[in-house]
Design a protein that fits this description.
This is Fe-S cluster assembly protein SufD. α2 crosses α3. The strands form two sheets. This protein has a nine-stranded mixed sheet, covered by helices on one side. The protein is built from four helices and 18 strands. The protein has two domains: 310 residues, no CATH class; 56 residues, no CATH class. It is mostly beta strands and 381 residues long. The longest helix has 17 residues.
Length: 381
């Protein structure tokens, strides 16, 4: 077993100064030695970082609440790009390559009567596709959106979340790809005054999956809750990179990601960045990452970064840990007559329980609970 827990490091440069552009040619082709790519298996990206041309297309189907508007728009639509700008070459390639975008809007002062589900199906084995999705919550709107990724192939996309003042939006992004799939996704969130974003990422399937959620505050009093749950099997590479940009006063962010790993060469990566700019007085922020290694041969990398430019904050902190089962928990359960395999299942369920309870869509929560059970059964845990 190899377990790697990196100590917090100082980034190559401040996140405030990181380069962004919609133009793919503005980025150099990454070699894998760059800080932003150093954990990613570049040879397994199917050329997404070197300009692979689209050879297919992904299908996008939307089952929307009656109150929600769904549009298919061209790149020239003025709303596209409002939430953020690509910060790496793959995101810029995806932005430069999509042919049409899907825009989902929760109208102002409206509470959606049911979750809206956006199902993205990959282009098929051996095919490459790019996409763009934007979810908008207008003034004082409230809604839940489920992004369900499935199928085969290679897919890169940008996903935008634009929250107007006072809006409340819950997003559940599920990566349940086939074993061959490669998915690189940049999520950009722009959170208005007193708005609330609950962003939940669940990654289970795929060969290589890299999801990078970025949240920026556009007004004071905003709140962001970033949650992640991932389960890596043998050979899988699951990577999550969160960035919260505090540039407004009196905003709150909370980041909690938990993952489990099993099997030879299962690899997970979590990079958590928080930037508190000089103007962001009264900020309250915390980030936490926990990894549970279930078998030998698995590796978890965890790197929290916290950059603070003002001392006038309410609080800031981070924590990270990677380890095996808690022997005391197992002993406690076995001492009460519970067989070891069942005790291990109970420990893993308890490990993920907090995060699963944040998913307010019962059918989605039940599906994920069943998927975790299936993962555990695969190795007789």
């Amino acid at each position: 077993m190899t377990v790697s827990v990196d100590k917090p490091v100082v980034p190559e440069s401040s996140r405030a100064d990181w380069f962004t552009s919609y133009d793919v040619e503005a980025f150099e082709t990454p070699s894998g030695r760059e800080e932003i790519w150093r954990f990613t298996p570049m040879k397994r990206l199917a050329g997404l970082h070197t300009g692979a041309a689209a050879t297919g297309s992904a299908s996008v189907e939307v089952d929307a609440a009656p109150e929600v508007r769904v549009e298919t728009v061209e790149r020239a639509d003025a709303r596209i790009g409002q939430a953020g700008v690509p910060a790496d070459r793959v995101a810029a390639q995806a932005y430069s390559s999509f042919t049409s975008a899907t825009v989902v809007t929760v109208p102002g002062e409206t509470k959606a009567s049911k979750p809206t589900t956006v199902t993205v199906t990959g282009p098929g084995a051996g095919q490459v596709a790019y996409g763009h999705l934007q979810v908008r919550a207008e003034l004082f709107a409230e809604g839940v959106v489920v992004l369900d990724h499935r199928g085969s192939g290679v897919y890169a996309d940008n996903v935008e979340f634009v929250l107007a003042d006072g809006a409340k939006l819950t997003v559940v992004s599920i990566q349940d790809w086939a074993d061959d799939a490669v998915h690189v996704s940049a999520h950009h969130a722009k959170v208005g005054r007193d708005a609330l974003l609950k962003h939940i990422v669940v990654t289970l399937g795929g060969d290589v999956v890299r999801v990078s959620p970025t949240a920026a505050f556009a007004g004071p009093g905003g709140e962001v809750d970033l949650t992640g749950l991932y389960f890596a099997d043998a050979g899988q590479h699951l990577e999550h990179r969160t960035f919260v940009d505090h540039a407004q006063p009196n905003c709150t962010s909370n980041v909690v990601y938990k993952g489990a790993l099993q099997g030879d060469d299962a690899h997970t990566v979590w990079i958590g960045d928080v930037l508190i700019r000089a103007a962001a007085e009264g900020t309250q922020t915390y980030e936490l990452n926990r990894n549970l290694v279930l078998t030998d041969g698995a590796r978890a990398d965890s790197v929290p970064n916290l950059e603070i430019e003002t001392g006038e904050i309410a609080g800031a902190g981070h924590a990270s840990a990677t380890g095996r089962f808690d022997d005391e928990q197992l002993f406690y359960l076995q001492a009460r007559g519970i067989p070891e395999d069942q005790a291990r299942r109970l420990v893993v369920r308890g490990f993920f329980h907090e995060l699963l309870m944040k998913i307010d869509v019962p059918e989605v929560r039940e599906r994920l609970e069943a998927a975790i059970e299936a993962e555990l059964a695969a190795v007789g845990a």
